[in-house]
Amino acid sequence: MRNSGFNFVSKIALSFLLVISMILPHFAIAKAETTAIGVSEAISQFNSTSVKPDVTVEGYIVGFAKSETSYVVEAETDTNIAIADTPGETDVTKMIYIQLPSSPASIRAEFGLKTNPGNLGKKVVITGSLEKYFGNHAGLKSPITLIQFVGDTPDPEEPTQVATVKASPTAGEVYAGTKVTLTTATPNATIYYTTDGSEPTTESRVYDSSSSIVINEATTIKAFATATDLVNSEVARFDYTIKTAPTAISIDEARNKAIGEEVIVSGIVTAKLETATAHIQDEMGAAIAIYPADSLTAKVGDLVTVQGIVDEYSGLKQLKNISLVGTPTATTLPDPQVVTSIGIAEDNESRLVTLKDVAITGSGQNFTGTDAAGTFAIYDKLRDSGLVSGKTYGEITGIVGQFTNHQLLPIRIIEDTTKVQDIQASSTGGVTAGTSVTLSTITEGAKIYYTVDGSLPTTASTEYTEPITINDPMTIKAIG
Known about the structure:
The chain is mainly β. Helices cover 4% and strands 43% of the residues. It has three helices and 34 strands. A hairpin with a 1-residue loop joins strand 26 and strand 27 (405-414).
Protein backbone atom coordinates (compact mmCIF):
# COMPACT_ATOMS: atom_id res chain seq x y z
CA MET A 1 0.00 0.00 0.00
CA ARG A 2 1.52 3.27 -1.03
CA ASN A 3 1.25 6.48 0.93
CA SER A 4 -0.18 9.14 -1.42
CA GLY A 5 1.47 12.06 0.39
CA PHE A 6 5.10 13.19 0.42
CA ASN A 7 4.76 15.90 3.09
CA PHE A 8 6.88 14.06 5.65
CA VAL A 9 10.46 12.88 6.04
CA SER A 10 11.24 9.30 7.05
CA LYS A 11 13.57 9.69 9.99
CA ILE A 12 14.46 6.03 10.74
CA ALA A 13 15.68 4.28 7.62
CA LEU A 14 15.92 0.49 7.51
CA SER A 15 13.32 0.09 10.24
CA PHE A 16 11.00 -2.82 9.62
CA LEU A 17 9.08 -2.91 12.88
CA LEU A 18 6.59 -0.22 13.88
CA VAL A 19 5.38 -0.15 17.48
CA ILE A 20 2.54 2.23 18.20
CA SER A 21 1.53 2.92 21.79
CA MET A 22 -2.02 4.18 22.05
CA ILE A 23 -1.50 5.60 25.53
CA LEU A 24 0.63 8.77 25.57
CA PRO A 25 2.33 9.65 28.85
CA HIS A 26 2.71 13.24 30.02
CA PHE A 27 5.85 14.71 28.50
CA ALA A 28 7.77 17.94 28.77
CA ILE A 29 11.37 18.34 27.71
CA ALA A 30 13.40 19.31 30.73
CA LYS A 31 16.96 20.32 31.46
CA ALA A 32 18.92 22.09 34.15
CA GLU A 33 17.31 25.24 35.49
CA THR A 34 17.87 28.21 33.18
CA THR A 35 17.24 31.91 33.70
CA ALA A 36 14.38 32.97 31.45
CA ILE A 37 13.91 36.35 29.81
CA GLY A 38 10.65 37.98 28.85
CA VAL A 39 9.27 38.21 25.34
CA SER A 40 10.10 41.92 24.95
CA GLU A 41 13.71 41.26 25.97
CA ALA A 42 13.95 38.34 23.52
CA ILE A 43 12.59 40.56 20.74
CA SER A 44 15.23 43.19 21.55
CA GLN A 45 17.93 40.51 21.19
CA PHE A 46 16.47 39.17 17.93
CA ASN A 47 18.39 39.70 14.68
CA SER A 48 16.74 38.44 11.49
CA THR A 49 20.13 37.80 9.88
CA SER A 50 21.56 35.58 12.61
CA VAL A 51 20.74 32.60 14.83
CA LYS A 52 21.15 32.74 18.62
CA PRO A 53 21.02 29.25 20.14
CA ASP A 54 19.75 28.21 23.57
CA VAL A 55 17.66 31.25 24.43
CA THR A 56 15.10 30.70 27.21
CA VAL A 57 11.95 32.80 27.05
CA GLU A 58 8.80 32.80 29.15
CA GLY A 59 5.46 34.29 28.25
CA TYR A 60 1.76 33.68 27.87
CA ILE A 61 0.23 31.72 25.00
CA VAL A 62 -1.82 34.23 23.00
CA GLY A 63 -2.52 32.48 19.71
CA PHE A 64 -1.43 30.62 16.57
CA ALA A 65 0.85 32.24 13.99
CA LYS A 66 -0.67 32.55 10.50
CA SER A 67 1.96 34.70 8.80
CA GLU A 68 4.66 37.22 9.58
CA THR A 69 2.04 39.85 10.39
CA SER A 70 -1.03 37.89 11.48
CA TYR A 71 -2.20 35.39 14.08
CA VAL A 72 -5.46 33.79 15.21
CA VAL A 73 -6.68 32.48 18.55
CA GLU A 74 -8.34 29.41 17.01
CA ALA A 75 -5.41 27.31 15.84
CA GLU A 76 -5.56 25.49 12.52
CA THR A 77 -2.82 23.02 13.47
CA ASP A 78 -0.54 22.21 16.41
CA THR A 79 2.63 23.33 14.60
CA ASN A 80 3.22 26.58 16.49
CA ILE A 81 2.11 28.94 19.24
CA ALA A 82 2.56 32.68 19.74
CA ILE A 83 3.56 33.99 23.17
CA ALA A 84 3.66 37.49 24.68
CA ASP A 85 4.49 39.18 27.96
CA THR A 86 0.82 39.61 28.81
CA PRO A 87 -2.16 37.29 28.24
CA GLY A 88 -4.58 38.72 25.70
CA GLU A 89 -1.88 40.62 23.75
CA THR A 90 -3.07 41.42 20.19
CA ASP A 91 -0.05 43.26 18.74
CA VAL A 92 2.01 40.75 16.70
CA THR A 93 5.11 42.93 17.04
CA LYS A 94 5.04 42.12 20.76
CA MET A 95 4.88 38.36 20.18
CA ILE A 96 7.43 35.61 19.66
CA TYR A 97 6.38 32.73 17.41
CA ILE A 98 7.29 29.30 18.80
CA GLN A 99 7.87 26.35 16.48
CA LEU A 100 6.49 23.15 18.01
CA PRO A 101 8.56 20.27 16.59
CA SER A 102 6.85 17.15 15.28
CA SER A 103 9.12 14.89 17.32
CA PRO A 104 8.51 13.87 20.00
CA ALA A 105 4.81 13.90 19.14
CA SER A 106 3.90 14.61 22.77
CA ILE A 107 5.05 18.24 22.44
CA ARG A 108 2.34 19.12 19.94
CA ALA A 109 -0.11 16.86 21.77
CA GLU A 110 0.41 18.80 25.03
CA PHE A 111 1.17 22.35 23.89
CA GLY A 112 -0.57 22.67 20.51
CA LEU A 113 -3.54 25.06 20.54
CA LYS A 114 -5.66 23.09 18.10
CA THR A 115 -5.64 20.03 20.34
CA ASN A 116 -5.64 22.12 23.54
CA PRO A 117 -7.58 25.38 23.04
CA GLY A 118 -7.64 25.72 26.83
CA ASN A 119 -3.88 26.48 26.72
CA LEU A 120 -4.72 30.00 25.57
CA GLY A 121 -3.58 32.38 28.32
CA LYS A 122 -1.32 29.84 30.04
CA LYS A 123 2.27 30.72 30.85
CA VAL A 124 5.10 28.68 29.37
CA VAL A 125 8.88 28.69 29.45
CA ILE A 126 10.74 27.56 26.32
CA THR A 127 14.38 27.17 25.29
CA GLY A 128 15.20 27.17 21.60
CA SER A 129 17.03 28.86 18.77
CA LEU A 130 16.19 32.59 18.53
CA GLU A 131 15.89 33.26 14.81
CA LYS A 132 13.47 34.40 12.14
CA TYR A 133 10.27 32.41 11.74
CA PHE A 134 7.41 33.11 9.32
CA GLY A 135 9.36 35.53 7.15
CA ASN A 136 11.36 37.86 9.38
CA HIS A 137 9.29 37.55 12.54
CA ALA A 138 11.07 36.85 15.83
CA GLY A 139 10.80 33.17 16.67
CA LEU A 140 12.08 30.29 18.75
CA LYS A 141 12.78 27.25 16.60
CA SER A 142 14.17 23.74 16.82
CA PRO A 143 16.08 22.39 18.54
CA ILE A 144 13.63 23.01 21.40
CA THR A 145 15.41 21.73 24.52
CA LEU A 146 12.95 22.94 27.17
CA ILE A 147 9.20 23.50 27.07
CA GLN A 148 6.92 23.43 30.08
CA PHE A 149 4.07 25.26 31.71
CA VAL A 150 4.81 27.73 34.49
CA GLY A 151 2.76 27.76 37.69
CA ASP A 152 0.68 30.68 38.90
CA THR A 153 -0.72 31.41 35.46
CA PRO A 154 -3.50 33.97 35.97
CA ASP A 155 -6.92 32.88 34.87
CA PRO A 156 -8.02 34.83 31.79
CA GLU A 157 -10.88 37.23 32.38
CA GLU A 158 -14.17 35.42 31.97
CA PRO A 159 -16.13 36.80 28.99
CA THR A 160 -19.80 37.69 29.30
CA GLN A 161 -20.58 37.78 25.57
CA VAL A 162 -19.77 35.53 22.64
CA ALA A 163 -17.01 36.92 20.43
CA THR A 164 -18.14 38.51 17.16
CA VAL A 165 -18.17 36.24 14.12
CA LYS A 166 -15.34 36.79 11.63
CA ALA A 167 -15.22 35.80 7.96
CA SER A 168 -12.31 34.70 5.81
CA PRO A 169 -11.79 36.12 3.28
CA THR A 170 -13.08 39.40 4.58
CA ALA A 171 -15.90 41.19 2.78
CA GLY A 172 -15.26 42.74 -0.62
CA GLU A 173 -14.61 41.65 -4.19
CA VAL A 174 -13.97 37.94 -4.66
CA TYR A 175 -13.88 35.52 -7.56
CA ALA A 176 -16.84 33.25 -8.25
CA GLY A 177 -16.37 29.98 -6.39
CA THR A 178 -14.58 31.59 -3.45
CA LYS A 179 -15.16 29.73 -0.18
CA VAL A 180 -15.96 31.79 2.92
CA THR A 181 -15.38 30.39 6.40
CA LEU A 182 -16.95 31.78 9.56
CA THR A 183 -15.31 31.63 12.98
CA THR A 184 -15.67 32.98 16.49
CA ALA A 185 -13.01 33.04 19.19
CA THR A 186 -15.48 31.66 21.74
CA PRO A 187 -15.05 27.88 22.20
CA ASN A 188 -18.06 25.61 21.59
CA ALA A 189 -20.14 28.42 20.13
CA THR A 190 -22.84 27.87 17.50
CA ILE A 191 -22.93 30.24 14.52
CA TYR A 192 -26.21 31.07 12.78
CA TYR A 193 -26.21 32.86 9.45
CA THR A 194 -28.18 34.04 6.43
CA THR A 195 -27.02 34.76 2.88
CA ASP A 196 -29.93 36.88 1.66
CA GLY A 197 -29.29 39.95 3.79
CA SER A 198 -32.01 39.13 6.34
CA GLU A 199 -31.33 39.23 10.06
CA PRO A 200 -30.26 35.81 11.40
CA THR A 201 -31.98 34.13 14.34
CA THR A 202 -31.60 30.80 16.08
CA GLU A 203 -34.00 29.48 13.43
CA SER A 204 -31.51 30.36 10.67
CA ARG A 205 -28.99 27.96 9.18
CA VAL A 206 -26.31 26.62 11.52
CA TYR A 207 -22.80 27.09 10.18
CA ASP A 208 -20.94 23.80 9.72
CA SER A 209 -17.21 24.30 10.34
CA SER A 210 -16.40 21.28 8.16
CA SER A 211 -17.71 23.10 5.09
CA SER A 212 -17.71 26.62 3.69
CA ILE A 213 -20.08 29.09 2.11
CA VAL A 214 -19.41 29.30 -1.63
CA ILE A 215 -19.81 32.72 -3.22
CA ASN A 216 -20.98 32.56 -6.84
CA GLU A 217 -22.90 35.84 -6.98
CA ALA A 218 -23.22 39.07 -5.03
CA THR A 219 -24.00 37.91 -1.50
CA THR A 220 -24.56 39.42 1.93
CA ILE A 221 -23.78 37.14 4.85
CA LYS A 222 -25.10 38.07 8.26
CA ALA A 223 -24.07 35.96 11.23
CA PHE A 224 -24.05 35.82 15.00
CA ALA A 225 -22.98 33.22 17.53
CA THR A 226 -24.41 31.76 20.73
CA ALA A 227 -22.86 29.82 23.61
CA THR A 228 -24.09 28.50 26.93
CA ASP A 229 -24.23 31.10 29.73
CA LEU A 230 -23.04 33.93 27.47
CA VAL A 231 -24.82 36.83 25.80
CA ASN A 232 -25.23 36.31 22.05
CA SER A 233 -22.64 38.04 19.89
CA GLU A 234 -23.46 41.10 17.85
CA VAL A 235 -24.63 40.41 14.28
CA ALA A 236 -21.74 40.72 11.83
CA ARG A 237 -22.30 41.62 8.17
CA PHE A 238 -20.11 40.65 5.22
CA ASP A 239 -20.89 41.94 1.72
CA TYR A 240 -19.33 40.14 -1.24
CA THR A 241 -19.37 41.08 -4.91
CA ILE A 242 -18.01 39.10 -7.83
CA LYS A 243 -15.01 40.36 -9.76
CA THR A 244 -14.07 39.27 -13.24
CA ALA A 245 -11.40 36.61 -13.11
CA PRO A 246 -8.47 36.75 -15.51
CA THR A 247 -8.26 33.84 -17.93
CA ALA A 248 -6.49 30.83 -16.45
CA ILE A 249 -3.08 30.16 -17.97
CA SER A 250 -0.47 27.41 -17.61
CA ILE A 251 2.11 27.55 -14.84
CA ASP A 252 4.83 27.84 -17.47
CA GLU A 253 3.11 30.95 -18.87
CA ALA A 254 2.70 32.37 -15.36
CA ARG A 255 6.41 31.90 -14.64
CA ASN A 256 7.19 34.06 -17.66
CA LYS A 257 4.84 36.90 -16.72
CA ALA A 258 6.22 40.19 -15.43
CA ILE A 259 6.58 40.73 -11.69
CA GLY A 260 3.38 42.22 -10.32
CA GLU A 261 1.01 40.72 -12.90
CA GLU A 262 -2.10 38.91 -11.66
CA VAL A 263 -2.58 35.36 -12.92
CA ILE A 264 -4.75 32.30 -12.38
CA VAL A 265 -3.18 28.83 -12.59
CA SER A 266 -4.12 25.27 -11.70
CA GLY A 267 -1.94 22.52 -10.27
CA ILE A 268 -1.58 19.77 -7.69
CA VAL A 269 -0.16 20.75 -4.30
CA THR A 270 3.07 18.76 -4.06
CA ALA A 271 4.44 20.24 -0.83
CA LYS A 272 3.68 22.64 2.00
CA LEU A 273 7.01 23.43 3.59
CA GLU A 274 6.40 24.63 7.14
CA THR A 275 7.04 28.37 7.66
CA ALA A 276 8.03 28.88 4.02
CA THR A 277 6.48 28.00 0.67
CA ALA A 278 3.91 25.69 -0.80
CA HIS A 279 4.42 24.33 -4.31
CA ILE A 280 1.98 23.36 -7.05
CA GLN A 281 2.70 21.44 -10.25
CA ASP A 282 0.57 21.00 -13.37
CA GLU A 283 0.12 18.07 -15.74
CA MET A 284 2.94 19.36 -17.95
CA GLY A 285 5.38 19.22 -15.05
CA ALA A 286 5.73 22.99 -14.68
CA ALA A 287 5.67 24.17 -11.06
CA ILE A 288 5.62 27.36 -9.03
CA ALA A 289 5.91 28.36 -5.38
CA ILE A 290 3.14 29.86 -3.25
CA TYR A 291 4.16 32.28 -0.49
CA PRO A 292 3.48 32.01 2.36
CA ALA A 293 2.62 28.33 2.60
CA ASP A 294 -0.22 28.88 5.07
CA SER A 295 -2.02 31.19 2.64
CA LEU A 296 -2.92 28.09 0.60
CA THR A 297 -5.82 26.44 2.43
CA ALA A 298 -5.48 23.08 0.71
CA LYS A 299 -3.75 19.80 1.44
CA VAL A 300 -0.83 18.09 -0.27
CA GLY A 301 -2.37 16.06 -3.09
CA ASP A 302 -5.21 18.53 -3.74
CA LEU A 303 -5.83 19.91 -7.22
CA VAL A 304 -6.28 23.66 -6.82
CA THR A 305 -6.89 26.74 -8.93
CA VAL A 306 -5.34 29.85 -7.44
CA GLN A 307 -5.19 33.53 -8.29
CA GLY A 308 -2.14 35.48 -7.22
CA ILE A 309 0.47 38.09 -8.01
CA VAL A 310 3.68 37.02 -9.77
CA ASP A 311 6.66 37.74 -7.54
CA GLU A 312 10.29 36.72 -7.12
CA TYR A 313 12.31 36.30 -3.94
CA SER A 314 16.05 35.65 -4.09
CA GLY A 315 15.57 34.18 -7.55
CA LEU A 316 12.58 31.95 -6.67
CA LYS A 317 9.54 32.66 -8.86
CA GLN A 318 6.41 32.56 -6.72
CA LEU A 319 2.81 33.70 -6.37
CA LYS A 320 1.85 35.90 -3.43
CA ASN A 321 -1.43 37.37 -2.18
CA ILE A 322 -3.15 34.24 -3.42
CA SER A 323 -6.78 33.21 -3.14
CA LEU A 324 -8.47 29.98 -4.09
CA VAL A 325 -10.73 29.94 -7.13
CA GLY A 326 -13.29 27.20 -6.59
CA THR A 327 -12.89 24.25 -4.27
CA PRO A 328 -9.76 22.05 -3.92
CA THR A 329 -10.25 18.50 -5.19
CA ALA A 330 -8.40 15.55 -3.67
CA THR A 331 -6.32 13.70 -6.24
CA THR A 332 -3.03 11.79 -6.44
CA LEU A 333 0.42 13.31 -6.42
CA PRO A 334 2.39 13.35 -9.66
CA ASP A 335 5.31 10.96 -9.71
CA PRO A 336 8.56 12.76 -8.86
CA GLN A 337 10.75 13.52 -11.86
CA VAL A 338 13.94 11.45 -11.56
CA VAL A 339 16.89 13.80 -12.11
CA THR A 340 20.59 13.97 -11.40
CA SER A 341 22.40 16.77 -9.65
CA ILE A 342 22.40 18.64 -12.97
CA GLY A 343 18.61 18.83 -12.68
CA ILE A 344 18.72 20.99 -9.54
CA ALA A 345 18.36 24.01 -11.76
CA GLU A 346 15.98 26.67 -13.10
CA ASP A 347 14.17 24.33 -15.50
CA ASN A 348 12.95 22.25 -12.56
CA GLU A 349 12.31 25.04 -10.05
CA SER A 350 9.51 24.11 -7.59
CA ARG A 351 9.16 20.68 -9.22
CA LEU A 352 8.92 17.45 -7.22
CA VAL A 353 12.06 15.46 -8.03
CA THR A 354 13.94 12.37 -6.90
CA LEU A 355 17.72 11.87 -6.97
CA LYS A 356 19.30 8.43 -6.60
CA ASP A 357 22.46 7.17 -4.91
CA VAL A 358 23.37 10.43 -3.19
CA ALA A 359 26.34 10.76 -0.81
CA ILE A 360 25.88 13.42 1.90
CA THR A 361 28.27 15.83 3.59
CA GLY A 362 27.47 18.79 5.81
CA SER A 363 25.39 19.42 8.93
CA GLY A 364 22.64 21.57 10.42
CA GLN A 365 20.61 23.18 7.67
CA ASN A 366 23.17 23.01 4.88
CA PHE A 367 24.26 19.80 3.17
CA THR A 368 25.93 18.90 -0.10
CA GLY A 369 24.72 15.94 -2.12
CA THR A 370 26.95 14.12 -4.58
CA ASP A 371 25.74 11.72 -7.27
CA ALA A 372 27.30 10.31 -10.41
CA ALA A 373 26.76 13.60 -12.26
CA GLY A 374 28.19 16.01 -9.69
CA THR A 375 27.22 17.94 -6.57
CA PHE A 376 24.22 19.99 -5.49
CA ALA A 377 23.07 21.97 -2.45
CA ILE A 378 20.50 20.66 0.05
CA TYR A 379 18.76 23.05 2.45
CA ASP A 380 17.12 21.39 5.46
CA LYS A 381 15.39 24.44 6.91
CA LEU A 382 13.85 22.72 9.93
CA ARG A 383 16.84 20.43 10.51
CA ASP A 384 14.51 17.44 10.54
CA SER A 385 15.22 15.64 7.28
CA GLY A 386 17.20 12.89 8.99
CA LEU A 387 20.17 13.34 6.65
CA VAL A 388 23.51 12.26 8.14
CA SER A 389 26.87 13.35 6.83
CA GLY A 390 28.94 10.46 5.54
CA LYS A 391 25.96 8.34 4.50
CA THR A 392 24.80 7.48 0.99
CA TYR A 393 21.06 7.38 0.35
CA GLY A 394 19.32 5.32 -2.30
CA GLU A 395 16.77 8.06 -2.94
CA ILE A 396 16.16 11.62 -1.83
CA THR A 397 12.89 13.24 -2.89
CA GLY A 398 12.14 16.93 -2.54
CA ILE A 399 11.34 20.25 -4.15
CA VAL A 400 13.82 22.20 -6.25
CA GLY A 401 14.07 25.54 -4.49
CA GLN A 402 16.16 28.64 -4.88
CA PHE A 403 17.67 31.12 -2.48
CA THR A 404 20.36 32.85 -4.53
CA ASN A 405 21.42 29.40 -5.77
CA HIS A 406 19.27 26.37 -6.57
CA GLN A 407 18.96 23.74 -3.88
CA LEU A 408 16.94 20.67 -2.98
CA LEU A 409 14.40 21.06 -0.18
CA PRO A 410 14.17 17.45 1.12
CA ILE A 411 10.80 15.88 1.84
CA ARG A 412 11.57 12.16 1.94
CA ILE A 413 14.75 10.11 2.23
CA ILE A 414 15.29 6.40 1.65
CA GLU A 415 18.61 4.94 2.68
CA ASP A 416 18.16 1.46 1.19
CA THR A 417 15.66 1.18 -1.66
CA THR A 418 15.87 -2.61 -1.63
CA LYS A 419 14.15 -2.82 1.76
CA VAL A 420 10.53 -2.17 2.70
CA GLN A 421 10.45 1.30 4.22
CA ASP A 422 9.11 2.45 7.56
CA ILE A 423 5.46 1.82 8.26
CA GLN A 424 3.57 4.99 9.20
CA ALA A 425 0.44 5.28 11.34
CA SER A 426 -2.14 8.02 10.89
CA SER A 427 -2.48 8.45 14.69
CA THR A 428 -0.36 7.59 17.72
CA GLY A 429 -0.47 8.41 21.42
CA GLY A 430 -3.68 9.47 23.11
CA VAL A 431 -6.70 9.05 20.84
CA THR A 432 -10.47 9.14 21.36
CA ALA A 433 -12.54 5.95 21.29
CA GLY A 434 -13.62 5.10 17.77
CA THR A 435 -10.53 6.58 16.11
CA SER A 436 -9.59 4.80 12.87
CA VAL A 437 -5.86 4.25 12.41
CA THR A 438 -4.44 3.66 8.95
CA LEU A 439 -1.07 2.01 8.27
CA SER A 440 1.02 2.71 5.19
CA THR A 441 4.48 2.51 3.70
CA ILE A 442 6.00 4.38 0.78
CA THR A 443 7.27 1.10 -0.66
CA GLU A 444 4.96 0.46 -3.57
CA GLY A 445 3.23 -2.92 -3.55
CA ALA A 446 4.40 -3.85 -0.04
CA LYS A 447 2.10 -5.88 2.21
CA ILE A 448 1.68 -4.95 5.88
CA TYR A 449 1.09 -7.48 8.65
CA TYR A 450 0.16 -6.45 12.19
CA THR A 451 -0.87 -7.51 15.69
CA VAL A 452 -2.86 -5.64 18.35
CA ASP A 453 -2.01 -7.77 21.40
CA GLY A 454 1.62 -6.73 21.83
CA SER A 455 3.07 -9.82 20.16
CA LEU A 456 5.63 -9.57 17.40
CA PRO A 457 4.02 -9.74 13.97
CA THR A 458 5.06 -12.17 11.26
CA THR A 459 3.88 -12.85 7.74
CA ALA A 460 1.36 -15.22 9.34
CA SER A 461 -0.23 -12.33 11.27
CA THR A 462 -3.27 -10.39 10.09
CA GLU A 463 -2.69 -8.65 6.77
CA TYR A 464 -3.59 -4.96 6.84
CA THR A 465 -6.43 -4.24 4.42
CA GLU A 466 -8.53 -1.58 6.16
CA PRO A 467 -8.27 0.99 9.00
CA ILE A 468 -8.02 -0.33 12.56
CA THR A 469 -10.63 1.06 14.98
CA ILE A 470 -9.34 1.93 18.46
CA ASN A 471 -11.90 1.50 21.24
CA ASP A 472 -9.58 0.37 24.07
CA PRO A 473 -5.91 0.90 25.01
CA MET A 474 -3.97 -0.92 22.33
CA THR A 475 -0.46 -1.45 21.02
CA ILE A 476 -0.15 -2.09 17.30
CA LYS A 477 3.00 -3.76 16.01
CA ALA A 478 3.46 -3.99 12.26
CA ILE A 479 5.94 -5.23 9.69
CA GLY A 480 6.10 -4.83 5.94
